[in-house]
Design a protein that fits this description.
This protein is α/β, with parallel strands linked by helices. It has helices at 27-35, 55-58, 70-75, 90-96, 110-123, 127-148, 173-180, 201-204, 221-228, 241-245, 250-265; strands spanning 3-6, 12-15, 22-24, 42-45, 60-61, 80-84, 101-105, 154-161, 166-167, 183-185, 209-213, 235-239. It starts with a strand and ends with a helix. The mean pLDDT is 97.
């Protein structure tokens, strides 16, 4: 009897058996699949799938997140390809649907993240492992909420790109985690990843703290100096982008990272 599941975009998928050959086109979801005990089932990954590091030498690299090699993917004869609404383009998804089932995740909230872990546990017959990660995530989340609840709110801007300068805005996982940390994102009401002008930083909200993410753009000290000139003595901090933008099992580590970050910021 077929098992019927809906992905996070509402697409219905039928599985006669659990998919055995998996291609993951999302780095954080590759890490989650590994942590669920599915290393042997992963046959293809992207060049950005760097955790755990050894997968880059044991699995077939099929491209990036925005550009893939369709012939390599077809040759791997996957049963399922894991994509994400934000990471992968609609064009890629539609082309891959000609190969096999494409499961799409859409992660904005922590609950979305929990749902993804649960779904993977159901699809790949890893229910116990998935529940363990859900329990770990919920426990770490609750612990962090107790840690952060008395911290004063601070205004922040979270930079992700240069030339043009771009920041994390609304309806993003980054913004959700900023709110969790009691950081008020001054750009939370103007789109998902808006372009901004540095000379407007003060009138845009005059942040107390500037975060420069380690990914996707590798900001340097001179960038921090340049951006800082346009603020009213804002503290500029380089942050680990994986901890703010990777979902899946990574979130458990993020909560511990946020404790350390808060000891620097406040």
């Amino acid at each position: 009897m077929d098992k019927i599941f809906k992905d996070q975009l509402g697409n219905t998928h039928n599985f006669q058996t659990s998919p055995k050959r998996i291609i993951s086109l999302v780095p954080s979801q590759t890490e989650l699949l590994y942590d669920l005990g599915l290393e042997q089932n992963i046959v293809g990954i992207t060049k950005f799938c760097v955790h755990p590091y050894h997968l880059k030498s044991t699995k077939k690299i099929v491209g990036g997140t925005k550009k893939v090699n369709y012939e390599k993917i077809k040759a791997l004869q996957p049963d399922i390809i894991i994509c994400n609404k934000e990471e992968n383009t609609l064009e890629i998804v539609e082309e891959l649907r000609k190969v096999c089932t494409v499961w799409i995740t859409d992660i904005v909230t922590i609950q979305d993240n929990i749902q993804m872990i649960y779904d993977f546990g159901q699809i790949f017959n890893k229910r116990t492992e998935a529940q363990n990660w859900i329990d770990k995530t919920n426990l770490a989340h609750q612990d962090f909420q107790n840690f952060i609840k008395e911290k004063p709110i601070q205004k922040v801007a979270y930079f992700i790109w240069k030339n043009p300068y771009m920041v994390a805005g609304s309806d993003t996982f980054v913004n959700e985690l900023l709110k969790l940390n009691r950081f008020e994102n001054i750009y939370q009401n103007i789109g998902r990843y808006p372009e901004i002008q540095l000379e407007n930083l003060r009138t845009d909200g005059d942040p107390d703290v500037i975060f420069l993410s380690s990914e996707p753009y590798p900001f340097k000290e001179e960038d921090a100096f340049e951006i800082g000139k346009f603020t009213h003595q804002a503290k500029t901090i380089f942050v680990n982008g994986e901890m703010f933008s990777w979902y899946g099992s990574r979130l458990v580590k993020s909560f511990e990272y946020f404790k350390l970050l808060n000891s620097i910021v406040r």
